[in-house]
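Input:
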Amino acid sequence: DAGVIQSPRHEVTEMGQEVTLRCKPISGHNSLFWYRQTMMRGLELLIYFNNNVPIDDSGMPEDRFSAKMPNASFSTLKIQPSEPRDSAVYFCASSFDGGDQPQHFGDGTRLSIL
Amino acid sequence: SQKIEQNSEALNIQEGKTATLTCNYTNYSPAYLQWYRQDPGRGPVFLLLIRENEKEKRKERLKVTFDTTLKQSLFHITASQPADSATYLCAPITGGGNKLTFGTGTQLKVEL
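Output:
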Protein backbone atom coordinates (compact mmCIF):
# COMPACT_ATOMS: atom_id res chain seq x y z
CA ASP A 1 0.00 0.00 0.00
CA ALA A 2 1.23 3.51 -0.72
CA GLY A 3 2.15 5.52 2.32
CA VAL A 4 1.87 9.27 2.73
CA ILE A 5 3.29 10.94 -0.35
CA GLN A 6 4.89 14.36 -0.20
CA SER A 7 6.23 16.53 -2.99
CA PRO A 8 8.65 17.93 -3.75
CA ARG A 9 11.31 16.08 -1.73
CA HIS A 10 13.66 19.04 -1.93
CA GLU A 11 12.98 22.69 -2.66
CA VAL A 12 15.52 25.48 -2.91
CA THR A 13 14.22 28.95 -3.58
CA GLU A 14 15.02 32.56 -2.97
CA MET A 15 13.69 34.69 -0.19
CA GLY A 16 10.39 36.32 -1.04
CA GLN A 17 9.20 33.55 -3.36
CA GLU A 18 6.01 31.58 -2.80
CA VAL A 19 6.50 27.96 -1.78
CA THR A 20 3.84 25.25 -2.02
CA LEU A 21 4.28 21.86 -0.38
CA ARG A 22 1.95 19.01 -1.27
CA CYS A 23 0.71 15.94 0.55
CA LYS A 24 -1.38 12.92 -0.36
CA PRO A 25 -2.52 11.08 2.80
CA ILE A 26 -3.17 7.36 3.11
CA SER A 27 -6.54 6.48 1.63
CA GLY A 28 -9.20 6.14 4.33
CA HIS A 29 -7.39 8.23 6.94
CA ASN A 30 -9.50 11.17 8.09
CA SER A 31 -6.89 13.17 10.02
CA LEU A 32 -4.00 15.01 8.40
CA PHE A 33 -1.12 16.82 10.10
CA TRP A 34 1.61 19.22 8.96
CA TYR A 35 4.83 19.35 11.01
CA ARG A 36 8.08 21.28 10.77
CA GLN A 37 11.39 19.87 12.02
CA THR A 38 14.55 21.85 12.80
CA MET A 39 17.60 21.08 14.91
CA MET A 40 16.77 23.90 17.31
CA ARG A 41 13.05 23.27 17.85
CA GLY A 42 12.60 19.62 16.99
CA LEU A 43 9.35 18.36 15.46
CA GLU A 44 6.54 20.90 15.82
CA LEU A 45 2.91 20.55 14.83
CA LEU A 46 1.81 23.39 12.57
CA ILE A 47 -1.80 22.48 11.80
CA TYR A 48 -4.09 19.50 11.69
CA PHE A 49 -7.28 18.67 9.82
CA ASN A 50 -10.06 16.28 10.65
CA ASN A 51 -12.41 15.30 7.81
CA ASN A 52 -10.85 18.09 5.69
CA VAL A 53 -11.65 20.77 8.30
CA PRO A 54 -8.82 22.62 10.09
CA ILE A 55 -9.09 21.80 13.80
CA ASP A 56 -6.00 23.37 15.34
CA ASP A 57 -3.75 25.86 13.59
CA SER A 58 -2.17 27.27 16.74
CA GLY A 59 1.26 26.08 15.57
CA MET A 60 1.23 28.06 12.33
CA PRO A 61 4.01 30.58 12.90
CA GLU A 62 2.47 33.59 11.20
CA ASP A 63 0.16 34.78 8.46
CA ARG A 64 2.71 33.94 5.80
CA PHE A 65 1.79 30.29 6.33
CA SER A 66 -1.48 28.83 5.11
CA ALA A 67 -2.77 25.29 4.66
CA LYS A 68 -5.70 23.85 2.77
CA MET A 69 -7.33 20.50 2.38
CA PRO A 70 -9.75 20.73 -0.54
CA ASN A 71 -10.56 17.01 -0.43
CA ALA A 72 -9.74 13.85 1.49
CA SER A 73 -6.80 12.94 -0.74
CA PHE A 74 -4.85 16.19 -0.99
CA SER A 75 -3.46 18.97 1.17
CA THR A 76 -1.12 21.91 0.61
CA LEU A 77 1.02 24.04 2.86
CA LYS A 78 1.91 27.40 1.39
CA ILE A 79 4.46 29.98 2.51
CA GLN A 80 4.20 33.43 0.97
CA PRO A 81 6.52 35.27 1.09
CA SER A 82 9.22 32.82 2.18
CA GLU A 83 12.08 33.82 4.48
CA PRO A 84 15.43 32.13 5.29
CA ARG A 85 14.18 31.22 8.78
CA ASP A 86 11.52 29.04 7.17
CA SER A 87 14.27 26.62 6.08
CA ALA A 88 13.44 23.24 7.65
CA VAL A 89 12.09 19.79 6.86
CA TYR A 90 8.31 19.80 6.56
CA PHE A 91 6.45 16.56 7.22
CA CYS A 92 2.91 15.55 6.47
CA ALA A 93 1.27 12.73 8.43
CA SER A 94 -2.13 11.05 8.35
CA SER A 95 -4.09 8.79 10.67
CA PHE A 96 -7.53 7.62 11.65
CA ASP A 97 -9.20 9.89 14.17
CA GLY A 98 -8.28 9.41 17.85
CA GLY A 99 -5.36 9.87 20.21
CA ASP A 100 -4.73 6.13 20.25
CA GLN A 101 -4.16 6.01 16.50
CA PRO A 102 -0.62 5.91 15.11
CA GLN A 103 0.35 8.65 12.71
CA HIS A 104 1.93 7.70 9.39
CA PHE A 105 4.51 10.16 8.14
CA GLY A 106 5.74 10.98 4.67
CA ASP A 107 9.45 11.37 4.05
CA GLY A 108 9.24 15.14 4.18
CA THR A 109 10.16 18.12 2.04
CA ARG A 110 13.56 19.64 2.75
CA LEU A 111 13.09 23.36 2.19
CA SER A 112 15.97 25.79 1.82
CA ILE A 113 15.27 29.50 1.48
CA LEU A 114 18.31 31.46 0.30
CA SER B 1 3.80 25.28 30.42
CA GLN B 2 3.81 21.74 29.05
CA LYS B 3 7.25 20.25 28.63
CA ILE B 4 8.60 16.95 27.30
CA GLU B 5 12.19 15.98 28.00
CA GLN B 6 14.25 13.20 26.48
CA ASN B 7 17.94 12.45 26.96
CA SER B 8 19.60 15.22 24.99
CA GLU B 9 22.92 13.37 24.88
CA ALA B 10 23.31 10.59 22.34
CA LEU B 11 23.27 7.10 23.80
CA ASN B 12 26.03 4.75 22.65
CA ILE B 13 25.77 1.10 23.63
CA GLN B 14 27.31 -2.18 22.62
CA GLU B 15 25.48 -4.71 20.47
CA GLY B 16 23.56 -7.22 22.55
CA LYS B 17 23.02 -4.87 25.51
CA THR B 18 19.72 -3.33 26.54
CA ALA B 19 19.15 0.30 25.60
CA THR B 20 16.94 2.36 27.90
CA LEU B 21 15.59 5.73 26.76
CA THR B 22 13.74 8.15 29.02
CA CYS B 23 10.81 10.46 28.38
CA ASN B 24 9.79 12.84 31.17
CA TYR B 25 6.85 15.21 30.91
CA THR B 26 5.57 18.05 33.07
CA ASN B 27 2.22 19.85 33.22
CA TYR B 28 0.64 17.01 31.28
CA SER B 29 -1.92 14.37 32.06
CA PRO B 30 -1.63 12.20 28.97
CA ALA B 31 -4.16 9.53 28.22
CA TYR B 32 -1.70 7.85 25.84
CA LEU B 33 1.97 8.00 25.01
CA GLN B 34 3.39 7.02 21.64
CA TRP B 35 6.96 6.15 20.68
CA TYR B 36 8.40 6.68 17.20
CA ARG B 37 11.66 5.89 15.46
CA GLN B 38 13.25 8.28 12.97
CA ASP B 39 16.09 7.45 10.59
CA PRO B 40 18.13 10.18 8.84
CA GLY B 41 16.26 11.66 5.88
CA ARG B 42 13.05 9.80 6.70
CA GLY B 43 9.83 10.58 8.53
CA PRO B 44 9.13 9.16 11.99
CA VAL B 45 7.75 5.63 12.12
CA PHE B 46 5.30 4.54 14.82
CA LEU B 47 6.55 1.83 17.18
CA LEU B 48 4.33 1.49 20.24
CA LEU B 49 1.47 3.10 22.10
CA ILE B 50 0.81 2.76 25.83
CA ARG B 51 -2.33 3.90 27.65
CA GLU B 52 -2.45 5.62 31.03
CA ASN B 53 -3.96 2.54 32.68
CA GLU B 54 -1.21 0.26 31.34
CA LYS B 55 2.04 -0.09 33.25
CA GLU B 56 3.93 -1.90 30.52
CA LYS B 57 3.64 -2.83 26.84
CA ARG B 58 5.83 -5.20 24.84
CA LYS B 59 6.42 -5.84 21.16
CA GLU B 60 9.17 -8.26 20.19
CA ARG B 61 12.43 -6.77 21.58
CA LEU B 62 10.74 -3.50 22.58
CA LYS B 63 9.24 -2.68 25.97
CA VAL B 64 7.61 0.55 27.11
CA THR B 65 6.64 1.50 30.65
CA PHE B 66 4.41 4.35 31.73
CA ASP B 67 4.50 5.76 35.27
CA THR B 68 1.87 8.49 35.65
CA THR B 69 3.04 9.24 39.19
CA LEU B 70 6.62 9.90 38.13
CA LYS B 71 5.37 11.41 34.85
CA GLN B 72 7.79 9.26 32.96
CA SER B 73 7.94 6.67 30.22
CA LEU B 74 10.89 4.34 29.64
CA PHE B 75 11.60 2.69 26.30
CA HIS B 76 13.76 -0.42 26.30
CA ILE B 77 15.34 -2.29 23.40
CA THR B 78 16.72 -5.65 24.47
CA ALA B 79 19.45 -7.52 22.59
CA SER B 80 20.20 -4.34 20.67
CA GLN B 81 21.55 -4.48 17.12
CA PRO B 82 23.35 -1.92 14.93
CA ALA B 83 20.11 -1.71 12.89
CA ASP B 84 18.42 -0.22 15.98
CA SER B 85 20.59 2.90 15.62
CA ALA B 86 18.20 5.81 15.05
CA THR B 87 16.56 8.71 16.87
CA TYR B 88 13.66 7.76 19.12
CA LEU B 89 10.87 10.23 19.85
CA CYS B 90 8.17 10.11 22.51
CA ALA B 91 4.82 11.88 22.19
CA PRO B 92 2.29 12.11 25.03
CA ILE B 93 -1.30 12.77 24.03
CA THR B 94 -4.03 14.19 26.20
CA GLY B 95 -7.43 12.62 25.87
CA GLY B 96 -10.12 13.87 23.50
CA GLY B 97 -7.92 14.62 20.54
CA ASN B 98 -5.17 13.33 18.33
CA LYS B 99 -2.71 16.19 18.62
CA LEU B 100 0.80 14.87 19.25
CA THR B 101 3.51 16.94 20.90
CA PHE B 102 6.92 15.36 20.36
CA GLY B 103 9.94 15.34 22.60
CA THR B 104 13.26 16.38 21.10
CA GLY B 105 14.30 12.76 20.65
CA THR B 106 17.25 10.66 21.77
CA GLN B 107 19.82 9.46 19.27
CA LEU B 108 20.80 5.85 19.86
CA LYS B 109 23.92 4.31 18.38
CA VAL B 110 24.52 0.58 18.74
CA GLU B 111 28.12 -0.38 18.15
CA LEU B 112 29.58 -3.75 17.19
